[in-house]
Specification:
It is built from three helices and four strands. By secondary structure, the chain is α+β, with helices and mostly antiparallel strands. A four-stranded mixed sheet has the order 1-4-2-3. Helix 2 (53-66) crosses helix 3. It starts with a helix and ends with a strand.
Length: 147
């Protein structure tokens, strides 16, 4: 009889442990989104403002994550490297910022205030004359808050 009683206790303890683990898992799975500000660089081919497939994928994933939050503001900064004419680089950086903004809206980013800036090639050359690498991009900052 003693043996049966202990087996029943072990079975009950085992079941309660499963319940505890299951409830803990539910709490983790159902945790609210972090909704913290995020910055994302989107890279382009040389002399291009058309998004690459990878750029579209990154924007789509970030827009999906942002839908779980309140999007307070979106900052997009288009950049260009120092190769070529400065005026053309400014136009290219404007086109990159616009391309990213359009893709964010098409990906279903919740309505928000957009702040677009085009830096052109400004800042692409260091004080000692060296070119800054990786300037063929647009930087996105999503200002997020919990709903």
């Amino acid at each position: 009889m003693k043996f049966v009683f202990l087996t029943g206790v072990v079975a009950l303890v085992g079941l309660s442990a499963c319940t505890t683990v299951r409830n803990a898992k539910d709490r983790i799975v159902r945790a609210p989104p972090a909704c913290q500000d995020v910055s994302i660089p989107i890279y382009f081919e040389a002399d291009a403002a058309e998004l690459t497939p990878e750029g579209r994928r990154v924007i789509s994933l970030q827009a999906a994550e942002a839908r779980r939050c309140k999007v307070e503001r979106v900052v997009v900064v288009g950049l260009a490297d120092a190769a070529g004419d400065p005026a053309a680089n400014l136009e290219l950086s404007k086109a990159r910022a616009a391309s990213v903004t359009n893709a964010l809206m098409q990906a279903g980013l919740p309505p928000a205030e957009f702040d677009l800036t085009a830096a052109g090639q400004a800042g692409s050359v260091t004080a000692d004359g060296r070119l800054q690498p990786v300037r063929r991009r647009a930087d996105i900052t999503l200002k997020l808050a919990r709903k």
